[in-house]
Amino acid sequence: MNSLKKITLGFAIFIISVVFFSSCDDSSTSAYTGVRMIDNTFSPPVVRVHEGGMVRFYNAGNNPHNVVATDESWGDYEDVPKNDYLDVNFQTEGLYKYICSYHATPEGDWGMAGSVVVGDIDYHEYTNFTKNDAVKDFSGAVRYVPNVYETIQDAVDATNPGDLVLIDKGIYYEEVVVRTPSITIRGVDRNNVIIDGEFEKANGIIVAGVDGVVVENITARNALLNGFYFATVEGYRASYVTAYNNGDYGIYGFDSVDGVIDHSYASGSPDAGFYIGQCYPCNTVINNVISENNGLGYSGTNSGGDLYIVSSIFRNNMGGIAPNTLDSELLPPERESFIIGNHIENNNNIKAPAWPNQYITLGNGIIIAGGNNNLIKNNVINDHGVFGVVVTAAFDDNYWPAHGNIVQDNLIINSKKADIALSGISNLGNCFKGNTIQTSFPPGIQTSGECGDNIFSRGSDLSGLWSSIARIVYVNQGSFEVGDWRTMPEPGPQPNMPSPNSYFSNVVPAIDVFKNYEIDYTNIKLPETAEKYLN
Ligand SMILES: [Cu+2]
């Protein structure tokens, strides 16, 4: 608990940096091509300009970002402050690759990287495979680590689509970048096959832009950013993985669809243990996971559409589950997430690591922040210092009301402020019915009527919103103490996948993995830990 975090949000530094390179004899034009820097990607990742054209890199994210050429010939390691920009003129035809040095490798082969194409030239992606190279079936090839390949990365680099990388017990001090589609990366023992970032590497395993990859039965710890990171992929699965004490997220799906995350565990992340962001429809399920001692148990910004969070445990985080809408990522608003049959318990952990956005969720079980048409059903939600479930509008650059959310048939007990709450103005059509509760804001929020008859156009209580605002102000004015993600407790042993060595029968690339996932959404089972509250 020694991380004293100083916040400088709202401290406006207005800097306009103009970088010229090549000959700078003509800077007369004021037109430009825009690239948005969001968390954590350049959007769009490729832009074309004519010779002499200007690109404006605008930081619309919340994280620090910069723009640096991969050959360091242009750009700047200085942060571009939030809502500020960097203009660059490109005088000569060519391909100009660049990165944000915080969120990409120096070569720009993964992460927050982009290209400016100047003039009429060809552009090639970094992977040697195309989307069509992904396969549905195991190739039969097994790449053994460390017996044949000394490092996981060596083995992964040797793979063809459909291969299995089978990793023996050991601690592997590396970051694994996956560039081959539809491979399976598997440890023989979840608790004793460990990727350790030594607080130097960015991620445990990053799968960026290649489809159908499976990661299973392995632990990732001590990475600066994420334990397991799936970015811009179609088809992915993480099963029986453990992510702890990573510096941002545990298991992170971003701009990715068709996903399964199950039987997994995440702790000690200052952002969320589990995160699904910027996808619609996501076609993704999180099933049977445990998330504890994180800033948030689950967070999902601008995600939804067949996005299921079921049969899982979210406990002892700073805040529990927070689907939310932000302007700093694409595809707002958050919508159509289905949170069913989870045990959400005691998310009041002031000693969890956290960023400011997580800190404001302290003491809440489920926070719908500016999301629409979400379903929160059959959960057991107990012992929260503020609200069990709160549906609230969100402020970012825009005001995002919360519409059409259904909170139904939950057991919500022992919440200090209220078991359910509706907060913010202009929220329409949110429905609360069949819940077992004792308190609500405003009182009597739950009626016995049909969902849909029960519209609160402006009758919602603002106190939750105000207290959140007060907390933001408090955070911004000074400093606050939270846990240090580097020193959070190590989790106990987690269950192994069935038969990790019988690979001839159970290697299945993650193609159409959501559609083919065997689960009955009409009969979701609560975790065993919730059962004692039911009688
Ligand atoms: Cu960045």
Can you describe this structure?
The protein is mainly β and 535 residues long. The chain folds into 3 domains: 3-118, Sandwich (Immunoglobulin-like); 127-226 and 490-517, no CATH class; 321-487, no CATH class. It contains 4 helices and 45 strands. It starts with a strand and ends in a 29-residue tail after the last helix. Mean pLDDT is 85; it is low at 1-29, 453-461 and 472-477. Bound molecules: copper (II) ion.
Biggest sheet overview: 20 strands, parallel
- Low confidence ranges: 1-29, 453-461, 472-477
Approximately how much helix is present in the residues? under 10%
Small-molecule components bound: copper (II) ion
Shape: globular
Total DSSP E strands: 45
Backbone CA Rg:
23 Å
Question: What structural category arises from helix and sheet content?
Answer: mainly beta
Summed up, the helix count is: 4
Topology of this structure?
Layout: E1 3-6, E2 16-19, E3 33-38, E4 41-43, E5 46-49, E6 53-59, E7 65-69, E8 75-80, E9 85-90, E10 94-104, E11 111-118, E12 142-145, H1 152-158, E13 164-167, E14 170-172, E15 176-178, E16 184-187, E17 193-196, E18 203-208, E19 213-221, E20 226-231, E21 234-244, E22 251-254, E23 257-262, E24 265-267, E25 272-277, E26 284-287, E27 290-292, E28 296-301, E29 304-310, E30 313-315, E31 319-324, E32 335-340, E33 343-345, H2 356-359, E34 366-369, E35 375-377, E36 380-384, E37 387-392, E38 394-395, E39 399-400, E40 406-408, E41 411-415, E42 418-423, E43 431-433, E44 440-441, H3 463-477, E45 479-482, H4 503-506
The structure holds copper (II) ion (CU).
